[in-house]
Description:
With 299 residues, this protein is an all-beta fold. It has 2 domains: 1-62 and 230-299, no CATH class; 64-224. The protein is built from 1 helix and 26 strands. The chain has one helix at residues 119-122, and strands spanning 6-11, 16-22, 29-34, 44-51, 54-60, 64-70, 76-84, 89-94, 100-106, 132-141, 147-151, 156-160, 163-166, 180-184, 187-191, 194-197, 203-206, 210-213, 218-221, 231-236, 241-245, 249-253, 258-261, 275-278, 284-289, 292-297. The longest helix is centred in the middle third of the chain and has 4 residues, at 119-122. The protein is globular, with a radius of gyration of 19 Å.
Amino acid sequence: MLCSCNTSDIAIxxxxxxxxxxxxxxxxxxxxxxxxxxxxDDPTIVRWWNWNGKDGIxxxxxxxxxxFGWAADGSLLVGGQRQSRTPVVPWWRIGSAGKVLAxxxxxxxxxxxxxxxxxxxxxxxxxxxxxxSRGIASIAELTGGQIVTGGVDQTLAVWEGCSPTWLxxxxxxxxxxxxxxxxxxxxxxxxxxGIYQDKNDGYYEDxxxxxxxxxxxxxxxxxxxxxPAGTKLRANGADxxxxxxxxxxxAVVGAHPxxxxxxxxxxxVWKEWVSLAASRDCKVIAVANRHRIVKVTxx
Length: 299
């Protein structure tokens, strides 16, 4: 460890970490841990440490974790994803005792989206290439209590309870093209959105970052934040951003900038950093490789 900050480690002996999150106050750590191939009906667990002073575990039903978020009431938001032919957007609200407070699922509709039930596709054999990642890449709660989800396949929705409003379902779900959502009070910001161009075998034209405002939901273009060259992982706080490069160097920009470095073994793929998370003020960062989670607190 090459920094003057406070650090603590969590070793993961069973399974592989795919996603890490840290609570807004920087106290609790949550992680998605995949158990590849040993139990197809229950492939992922969510573990947490020091959430309201307790450790715990929750088994994700038939999905892998695509995103974490934290709600104002202290509950944990978990977005799921899986390989599928039909778009599906699942997410859960979990209490600190592991109780499921809400379980929601949306099925976006639009031309060519529901291939499993479309007569055009129903009797055709399903090739490997027709399966792609479906589900959630990012999730956040807005000040008004709505949940906003960005999909791995261009889905974008705002949820009132378990009822989604699809913001551009007509252009979603045609490629593995993830949308990142970040709550900004009653509004939210997106990056990764694209417009599908049905030519030259199809591609997405990047729309750049946008800010969405409600009643009804409308988006305007905003300036992209400056991201350091060589950034591998990135995490947003309220008004700050943490980044990490492949060598393990971390940098926080915002009201209280700071840097740190964690030794990285580039010769071992299992020790490459796969996920980064930041507290609301970016004073606490969690970073994970497949078998280790490190919590780093600013000097």
